[in-house]
Model the fold of this input.
Amino acid sequence: MVGAPASAAVLFGFDPGAASPEPGYHVVNAFDVATGITGSNFQIKVPPSDGNGALPANSIPAGTPYLSVLGGGFANVSLGGLFSAFQFDWGSIDTYNTLTIHGTAGDVVVVPGGNFPNQADGNQFAAGTNGVFTVVGTAGEKFTGITLASGSNSFEIDNLAVAGGVPEPAAWTMMILGFAAAGSLIRRRRAMAATV
Done:
């Protein structure tokens, strides 16, 4: 994994040709629909590739929908909670793609060819421009979402995955209800065993 420091609390890196999710991560958005995304001039694309985007070459399974931000557009994507690390498949990386990482210590902007010194020529097939981009918080940094912007067609990602997070309130509610149901079942079984 090629890495570059973004700030004291954020590290990011790129694993050429790899696919998300890597061990320890789970997908929160496969971009089958536009859930959790706001912005303008973006599309949920279905292959084959065309002038509006190309599926990241490393994306598994191949041939599924992905997010494509078109020229002059942007997309805000929520992670669905606070997470200490996240990653996604980034395809055909271009110098006109800009990624803003939103976190508890402020925003970090990643510019290919600038503070992200990787190959950024838009190649739709090469490992150097198609791989897993990973962001890790240090010193307690947590992340809430990302903004993708593109000066020209296109900025393509797939399989947004997270690790080390705090679930949303709805997930906590389901977990608490599950514990309550399990406790109720145990009490009922004990009561039944005592009467037999």
Summary: Confidence is low (pLDDT under 50) at residues 1-5, 167-187. The chain has one domain: 2-166. Residues 2-166 form a domain with the Jelly Rolls fold (CATH 2.60.120). The helical segments are 169-195.
